[in-house]
Amino acid sequence: MSRLQDRIHHLKSHVRGASLGLAAGAALIAGIGAATPALAQDNTITAVMHSGLRVLDPIITTAHITRNHGYMVYDVLVAVDENFAPQPQMADWTISDDNLTYTFTLRDGLKFHDGAPVTAADAVASLQRWGKRDSGGQLIFDVTESLEATDDKTIVWKLKSAFPALLDTVGKQSAVPPFIMPERVASGSADEAITDYTGSGPFVFVADEYQPGVSVTYRKFEDYVPRDGAASWMAGGKNVKVDEVKWVTMPDAQTAINALMSGEIDYIEQVQIDLLPLLEASEDITVETRDDLGYQTIGRMNFKHPPFDNVKIRQAAQMALSQEAVLATLIGNPDYYKVCGAIFGCGTPLGDESGSDTLTSGGDIEGAKKLLEEAGYDGTPIVLMQPTDVVSLTAQPVVAAQAMREAGFNVDMQAMDWQTLVTRRASQAKPAEGGWNIFFTNWMVPEINSPLISPMLNGRGDAAWFGWPEDEKIEELRAAFITADTPEKQKEVAVDIQKHTLDNVLYVPLGQYVMPQARTNKLTGMIPSPVPVFWNIEKAD
């Protein structure tokens, strides 16, 4: 057995033991039994999602569970279909001959859940709030001359210079979609969470049944008017064919699988790979993956506080890490993961692996030790946040902590549930005062496959994604990508961004993987979208 294989075996045992103990405790705390019905109700879909839901504002966070919640409750002006092509959703559009003016016209019948009509003023306020938070939105508003509602149904967006990817950016399916909210809600601060959850989408959030982190209920919005046409990813007709959808939290993977097989629940968003055989043997369960590209798992450091405000120390941490060790511990079965050093994802047009040699070849502990010594690291504790309740996030912190300790870092790994981490990562406090130094998360490849949409390639300091790097060079490169007028020129810029990102450690790409989902065969019509959605699904008796 090689040294790397020995490390992986040890790490798997560590993660499995920690996960079982922590999950068992979390199950008791969360009151799983109280949250789950004896049997899933007729015409109600009961689902176990990858995480409990605590953050309800889908604009202030990139957390996938909150994005999933956003698609239940809100609609969007433009949506991408299964071919990654932007399609009209709430609005149609025209573009002026000089490509500087986009005119959107809302379709008939749009209503909010309180019965009020959706107006252009609502859309403008929603777009403006989104533009203050989203990486791609910030780029569009950099070149925006004006955005206004000229009447109740018409939005006119005028640019100072062309932005060819405007529709793709406004229509992107994740991180972060510009969900349409009432003007009274969207006109509030982009830095403070909303408290009014009146939506524009196909489901109503049932506030009086919401138990943060435990369960959430969505009821069919009877007055929602679907767009004509077949559903295709986020586009087309969002026809709701059930009365309710309930998300319940089950931190223990075995408990969730038992519940699915016994009919207590209908759906599991993420299935732990080593438990797949239990489900694959059942004739009543379908196990499938939603997309081929899957996810990229990553590490993100805090640039505001020592020691990761020092680029050499960031480089040392990156040098210590091994994608194979992370992926083998996280997933186990190599059929479901891929070592890949491309920040834009392998298998994508912009994918390039320049500068990722240590990550993809098993890490370099000795090189990391030497670089850490050269950087003058003084033993400052590294606060590493460790989520314990999400199948796809339990391994990365354990693997990283061991590698960094071997390289000479003083690692303080602090356990918490994922929603606590999602809240804490927004804090800019010093690590010793409730802040943090490093955490790990996952992105769908389609939400990081371009510098225009990847949240981690934002170098605008406090206006950037959590970690807050100030990096003029990455902003210059993103601007160059916007003006590149051929795919070849875009790829050249993308390679420069790849090199700059890894050299400056804007984040650490740790490889790609797919995570299967499982559903009862009573559910039919589920759209094979990277984002799990609950319209179009029928449930048999």
UniProtKB/TrEMBL annotation:
Keywords noted in UniProt: Signal
InterPro entries for the chain: Peptide/Ni-bd, SBP_5, SBP_5_CS, SBP_5_dom
A Pfam family assignment: SBP_bac_5
Solute-binding protein family domain boundaries: 87-446
Localization, UniProt: Periplasm
Regions that span the bilayer: none
Family: Belongs to the bacterial solute-binding protein 5 family.
Protein name from the UniProt record: ABC transporter substrate-binding protein
Organism name: Nitratireductor aquimarinus
